[in-house]
Amino acid sequence: MTELTAPKSSVTAAQFADEIRNELKYTQGVTPEQAKPADVYVAAATAVRKHLMDSWMKTQQDMINGNTKAVGYLSAEFLMGKQLRNALLNSGLTEQFEAAVKELGFDPQQVTDAEYEPGLGNGGLGRLAACFIDSLASLGVPAFGYGIQYRYGIFRQEFDEEGRQIERPDYWLTNEDPWGHIDYERDQRVSFGGEVVEEDGKRVWKPSWSVRAIPVDYMVPGYESGRVNTLRLWQARSYDEFDLLTFNKSEYLDAVKPQVKAENISKILYPEDSTEVGKELRLEQQYFFASASIHDAIRVFYPNQDKPDLTTFPDKICFQLNDTHPVIGIPELMRILLDEYGYDWDTAWNITTKTFNYTCHTLLPEALEVWPVALISKLLPRHMEIINKINDQFMHELEEMTDDEAKVERMRIVTDGDTPSVRMAYLASYAGEHVNGVAELHSQLLKDVTLRDFSDLFPKKFTNVTNGVTPRRFMKLANPGLSDLITEGLGTDKWLEDLELLKNLEPLAQDDEFVKKFAQVKYDNKIKFADFAKREYGFDIDSSTMFDTMIKRLHEYKRQALKILEVIATYADIKSGKVKIEDVTPRTVIFGAKAAPGYYLAKMTIQLINNVAKVINNDPDVMGKLKVVFPWNYNIRVAQYLIPATELDEQISQAGKEASGTSNMKFALNGALTVGTLDGANVEIRERVGADNFFLFGMTVDEVEKMYADGYDPAKYYEADPRLKAAIDMVAKGTFSDGDEDTYAPLVSDWLTKDWFMTLADFTAYHDIQSEIETLYGDQLEWNRKAIINVANSGYFSSDRSIEDYLERVWMTGPLK
């Protein structure tokens, strides 16, 4: 672990209180007596930002003047979470803030609650990006996070009276944002459409319209490193002036069309793409931030140079493509080098292939983006020419490397046929210097299945970097009780910088007194979550019950259906008398998930969960024994309450479908036991915490593939397991839809005739492991011993370790001196 230290802030609480007073006066225009908690939040955030300013500027200057290659992390998502507490921790001002705010007559919790969570991500991809830029700064590695400042995020989730998901705009930028600095003087032009013409023997792109990309900078402070990196997000604005003449003719919509067209690009994350217009907007978004970011990096590293020597560009910065969303940046850099700087093809290709690396985050074909050639040709005609030439070059190279014509055809970047398409993962795998998966199993499946042809011919490109999470936010901030206990047990707080030190907790799992302290911390966290859930959602939760949690994006492969079917079966067992009520382990099952707006079956699953909750939670026969809660609009704030309180973590995706997962890491670090399949990072978690401390069930990857090959009949499992049959029949007969048998008919039909992710095949094994879980939970001392062993052996899953792996295996760079 790299040793980096920075002095704790010498600012006193009284001085910090004066700083907040000044910001209230000069920024907010109010006295402390007139101020509201939101005013104090903005004032405190502004004061913290000023404390970070010198380190931010020094980091940038050292990066430009030094010889350490920077990292440009290109990502469509950065799920940052609230920033004030994190900035206070990393700047050494937490205690001063607490005392200062109290001196001013405010509750620190109310002040931090006034911050609105940024709507910049959706799930694991965005949270991983946020953890990575935190770790880059904490390790002192110069870096830019590059993305889009979405005005409305993905959406704010609500549930209607029928339990259905309703998507609302997430107005996270409605109030003041003290963290983002808009820099109008460093904007970039991003163009679209038009045509490519021949001029003086050169191909010249004549775009038909352009937008203005305006950077909004967020500081990313490292923990005790003295370094502050930059998250640079782009807003889209129009270059066209407001048409006053048209407006004065009362043609109001026509007057603002150019502004609306431009600003739509940065309106929301992942616009619905089931229509051609939606697909077009998604591609516009991806090119917009990739193009602006590459041009920005050239500006940063070659200041005041009209014609810099860009052959040195790969020595200045390397770009990490976080999934396929920014892969259009590859032909964009080629275009810049060829058309704007006049390099020949071979030189431009040499620069480009040394600049980009690609992280694949999925094994699902639908998530490996494929763009129609017609769409790229319409929006980016010059780029399509370049992609075609890259493809032709690639085909020629392949023909010299192998006689396997079928393999060559399979590896085409641009497909043939009536509707040719561009396979972005293939483009990234060919042009990227390195390709990595995000867990050992995932990386192996990438090489063996998803990108097998590429791995066969370019084996040195492929590597693994298992994901990680930052312990600063997800332990120190989210779980101060456990953090303090760990520090007490280890006799040091250095574990926050070197999470592998947690291994030294393992002997304490045999110390009954320490185990009891650990159990008390967990129970206190359960009370905190129950209070939060009551305050925010109106839920009544019994803290003495087992907290059984499944928080994930709602997707069929993640198998929330498996969990809710087991809940229904348990409910049926109690109602029928098959299981005596006194033998049931009291359990609160907690879901958190959003479904993509156009994902019909996922949204129906949400509706089912909510209506199962409505029936069970109002049935006196199971009161106190079984409860289901589904907090709407799950986000980082909810996670920071729920993860420390959870005792059983559900990681039940079909084997071979989850790339890694990071919630599994957060839960293990916070002392939950995992029930899961051999999927994603579950495999590595189980290896490290020990098979006896992990509840394993379900088919393996090989067994899943064999069942696909042999032919899968879900109805066979429905008929074979009476509990499963009873549960599905209850759904089909309207038990959870006021007797309406049509409400969930599509879901039931899918389970019984398709069930692509084999929920029914794994149901019996899942029920059997739940019996083991309940037996162990009855021995609380033993349960908590195993929970401590999970914490002690999860140090590997730090995002600091992930970044060090990237530095060594992919980026070939290191911290600033």
TrEMBL record:
Q: Which family does it belong to?
A: Belongs to the glycogen phosphorylase family.
Q: Kindly give the PANTHER family that the UniProt entry links to this protein.
A: GLYCOGEN PHOSPHORYLASE (PTHR11468), GLYCOGEN PHOSPHORYLASE, LIVER FORM (PTHR11468:SF3)
Query: Per its database record, what is this protein's job?
Result: Allosteric enzyme that catalyzes the rate-limiting step in glycogen catabolism, the phosphorolytic cleavage of glycogen to produce glucose-1-phosphate, and plays a central role in maintaining cellular and organismal glucose homeostasis. Phosphorylase is an important allosteric enzyme in carbohydrate metabolism. Enzymes from different sources differ in their regulatory mechanisms and in their natural substrates. However, all known phosphorylases share catalytic and structural properties.
Tell me which InterPro entries the record gives: Glycg_phsphrylas, Glyco_trans_35, Pyridoxal_P_attach_site
Organism of origin is Bifidobacterium pseudolongum subsp. globosum
What cofactor does its activity depend on? pyridoxal 5'-phosphate
Record-linked Pfam families = Phosphorylase
Q: Species lineage, top-down?
A: Bacteria, Bacillati, Actinomycetota, Actinomycetes, Bifidobacteriales
Report whether Transferase shows up as a keyword of the record.
yes
TM segment ranges: none
Cellular component, GO, one term: cytoplasm
Task: Write down the EC number.
Answer: 2.4.1.1
Catalytic reaction annotation: [(1->4)-alpha-D-glucosyl](n) + phosphate = [(1->4)-alpha-D-glucosyl](n-1) + alpha-D-glucose 1-phosphate
Q: Name one GO molecular function term.
A: pyridoxal phosphate binding
Superkingdom per UniProt: Bacteria
Gene3D superfamilies according to UniProt: Glycogen Phosphorylase B
Tell me the residues on which N6-(pyridoxal phosphate)lysine occurs: 666
What biological-process terms (Gene Ontology) are attached?
glycogen catabolic process
Q: Which keywords does this Swiss-Prot/TrEMBL entry list? A: Carbohydrate metabolism, Glycosyltransferase, Pyridoxal phosphate, Transferase
Q: What is the recorded name of this protein?
A: Alpha-1,4 glucan phosphorylase
